[in-house]
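stuck on this:

***
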Amino acid sequence: MMSYNYFMSRPFIIMSAPNGARRQKTDHPELPITPDDMAICAYQILDAGASILHLHVRDDDGGHSLDVERYRASISAIKNAVGDQLIIQTTSEAVGFYSRHEQMAMTRELKPEAISLALRELCPADGDIAEFSKFNQWIKAEKIFPQYILYNESDFDRFEKMRKQGVFHDDTPFTLFVFGSYQGDYTNTDQLKEKSLAAKFPWAACGFYENEKECISHAALNDGHIRVGFENNIRKDENTLLENNAEMIRYSAKIASQAQRNVATASDVRNMFNLKE
């Protein structure tokens, strides 16, 4: 049975990635890092139209962390602020520090509501497919909502092959296409746009810097969804910082309205992906 309800595919999901693994408050004073920061940010992005918060946590030096207790502290603060009105998606991103086994171990211990998984990190070689399939089966049994991250055409082609083989235990897994890179390389964008138009599964996209607005329009007009936030972009233009994470969410909601799509609430997302009990 497919988990994604195509009859409810039109509401536009706006995901917020408010901090990421790399940036600091020296990059933007409104970058949320602590649990208290995340609680304030959660309220702001919910009010602007976000339904999913993509969560990173940091260590005492501000570095990337997959520490379960740090996740629990931020998740608790967010829930105290907004209840279940945001779906909290924890990252499993390696950032060059964590092995795939450490990433899976964190997920098993935390058992988050939702998780993002980079295909190339969690299943780097075909010899890892059987183990990855078992991990996905566990995710489904635990009713965790996964999103699989695809960075280029090769990732997409491999994902499609694995999807048809049943590796995800879901005919229509949610994905994220990453258009561009932190280094300003946009050579993957045209290819991934073509792949997104042909996708047989629900997808969101994220862009970088000046590419972000184009990415929002592409997703809104082509039945996709969007992820915006300071993880990928902190600038309104070359000379001006965005006010906070909510500003680009409001912009996304405006583009959705122009495309005649309603902005999805967390309840909509749960209905679209049959996440409710």
